[in-house]
What we know:
iron; single chain; eight-stranded mixed sheet; 2,3-Dihydroxybiphenyl 1,2-Dioxygenase, domain 1; globular; oxidoreductase
Amino acid sequence: MPTTFHQKPNLFIQNVTLKVSNLSRSIDFYTEIIGFRVLQQEEGRVTLTADGQHALITLVEVPNAQFVRGATGLYHFALLLPSRKDLGNLIQHFIQKNVQIGAGDHDVSEALYLSDPDGNGIEMYIDRPADTWKWDSNGQVYMTTDPVQFQSVLREADGTWSGLPIDTVMGHIHLSVRNLQESEDFYTSLLDYAVVSRYGGQALFISTGGYHHHIGLNTWHSEGAEALPKDAVGIQSYTVQLPDQDYAVNLKKRFVEQNMEIKEQENIFSIIEPNGIEVKFTI
């Protein structure tokens, strides 16, 4: 089962839609390297799943796609694995596939980092038990970046990697934004996220329900940047799960009060957040 941080009433990320330049190549990567299964495929579009029911990633092919640096958009999306054994099995899988990765022990979590063929950032991680996270009196959680103890993780592996575990969820998303204060105001004033960690004046992490972060925001390579062009590879949208219909109605009222355009679809509505990214909401 998903962690309670990724269940209602928390505002957790359900799905991320990415624009890619070569759909066939990306399907191969996401199935063979990352371990997804194809849930549904049509011309120029595929949805990927870990459990065979819920789409975690949607890939959309963009003809003659641009590769743009320095725009706002995706820093990385992060897949949360159920256990340290799963992380160990994943490391073994990456070794067998000769996949280059980065890594970081963030105290609250242990994480691996890599990129897809179009340069979209990916984190795959496990959480340490929530009762071991260190919170200060101001509601800020301690996070750092230390080396991952690979031998310790690998000792817990059992060599049974056969793709993403069915309980894998979208743990969080990390965005490159143009103005940190502007983004903080949007996500905390309109969407009820709380700031739980700050990295100087260039990055912050927000969550609901006492998670270490459902969304990361930074200006490391994007301060003052323009939004990602529509024909560029990168993030197209992401979907936030809302608690219930009443919450959805009240959220729409907030957007209307801010003169934000709301796009209605069946069981989903969306807006464009300050960095040009479409945010979809569903109950």
